[in-house]
Amino acid sequence: MLNEVNLVGRISNVPRISRTKANVSVITCNVANQRSENYVDFIQCVFFDQEYLEKRLKKGMKILVKGRLQQNTYTDADTGTTIYYHEVVGKVLELIGKINTEDVSKKKTDKSEVVKDINDTTIERERY
Fold first, then answer.
1. What Å distances lie between residue 96 and 57, 61, 122, CA to CA?
2. CA distance 12 to 60
């Protein structure tokens, strides 16, 4: 079965760094991926045993993540309910841009300069 994820976006939080009991580094961050002009998905990504990333990843960096989708569970301490969630387990991370420090509310975009490569399938999926 194929389980491959390629994701481009900006790191939307300060990456959390921890270690497993076996002293393997674990870096967790959320990546803001702009699905369309009006929708942004925040996707949790985790990287194991990649110490070189610990001091390099910063909030706002544009990155490319290649990895796999994984489902995890935990039990809510208050209700005892099992909670299911998904995350991308990153195998490859590429820095593809600088930190975005520009205030988005002040940013102006000339709509005539924006060109999108879309097809009918893309339009149909974005409606839902």
1. 12, 8, 24
2. 6
Spatial contact of 35 and 126, defined as CB atoms under 8 Å apart: yes
Mention the CATH class of domain 5-100.
mainly beta
List residues bridging with 87 in a β-sheet.
70
**Does residue 62 contact residue 8 with C-beta atoms inside 8 Å?**
yes
Handedness of CA 83, 24, 64, 4 (dihedral sign): negative
What letter does residue 37 receive in the DSSP assignment?
Answer: S
**Which residue type, as a one-letter code, is found at position 44?**
Q
**Distance, CA of 15 to CA of 11 (rounded, Å):** 8
Contact (CB, 8 A) for 14 and 27: no
| 16 within 8 A of 57, measured Cβ to Cβ | no
pLDDT tens for the chain, 128 residues long, are: 899 999 999 999 999 999 999 999 999 999 999 999 999 999 999 999 988 888 889 999 999 999 999 999 999 999 999 999 999 999 999 999 766 655 444 444 444 333 343 444 433 444 33
